[in-house]
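Lecture 7, part 2: worked example. A protein chain together with adenosine-5'-triphosphate.
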Amino acid sequence: MTISATGLRKRFGDHVVLDGIDLDVAESTVFSLLGPNGAGKTTAVQILSTLITPDAGEVRIAGHDLRTDPDGVRSAIGVTGQFSAVDGLLTGEENLRLMADLRHLPRREGRRVTAALLERFDLVDAAGKPAATYSGGMRRRLDLAMTLVGDPRVIFLDEPTTGLDPRSRHDLWQVIRELVEDDGVTIFLTTQYLEEADQLADRIAVLDHGRLVAQGTADELKRLVPGGHVSLRFTDVRSLDVAAGALRAAHRDDDALTLQVPGDGGVRSLRALLDELDRVAVEPDGLTVHTPDLDDVFFALTGRPTLEESAR
Ligand SMILES: Nc1ncnc2c1ncn2[C@@H]1O[C@H](COP(=O)(O)OP(=O)(O)OP(=O)(O)O)[C@@H](O)[C@H]1O
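Predicted complex, written out as structure tokens:
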């Protein structure tokens, strides 16, 4: 395991923020810690990246023990937080050069790395402009590029796409995927966006009130909840009546002329459903399958919708 943490605890005064959590992250994978505002995600990242010390718990990162060898941990990791390290008065190129100097890269090597990163992150045209003039997406890309100057094996991304428009978010997702696929980097990502975890993560852990309430792949988590159903639409009330009589467990909506039938949406159950409708000689006008998504998972696990959901 590239990251392994056991029994991680942290409290601020009376407020228990992490209440004994265990995490394992395999090399060259994306791990996502998912949770609403204030769940303790940033605190976990700050502990794993040596910025604050835990009250209890064992952590090893890239072979280094956090307590006895924090310098070893620091040399293996990169962090881009919610508060960017980008200096708005400097140009993109100057920001990268400054980072190369801080990492004690020889001057020539610093220039080479800077040029390569500007190219890779599509910032060549903007390289000579002050970072304050960059869009949100460009700033995040520059921030991530600055993290890469030190060639880290493990990167912590704390809510990397919060506040970005959908296009910039998708661009950043692509960059993150390439880091894992091409460079073999291990990514520890925190997010409030279920879709982001679903898109990027090999494994997801759901954090709620300082405890992990579930861990697994996106598919494993989705299997934890029922919530799947097939929605059948009809052209007239008579067909709806007949179908509702045949499919007893269905929930009907007379205004929309629809029936919702619980089910996993698999081919076998769909066929059985259509056979049943055939038997009573009604044909639906349309059919949609709803498989549970991570929003359903969060709700099933915590009894509350996510912020994303409740803000809608
Ligand atoms: N230094 C601190 N002193 C006191 N309380 C703190 C401190 N740092 C964090 N907290 C509290 O710990 C809780 C968890 O904060 P944390 O920033 O880890 O959550 P988060 O999941 O990252 O949320 P967000 O999505 O808002 O960043 C919050 O209630 C916060 O107010």
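The chain has a mean pLDDT of 89. The chain has two domains: 3-223, 229-290. Keep this in mind for problem set question 3.
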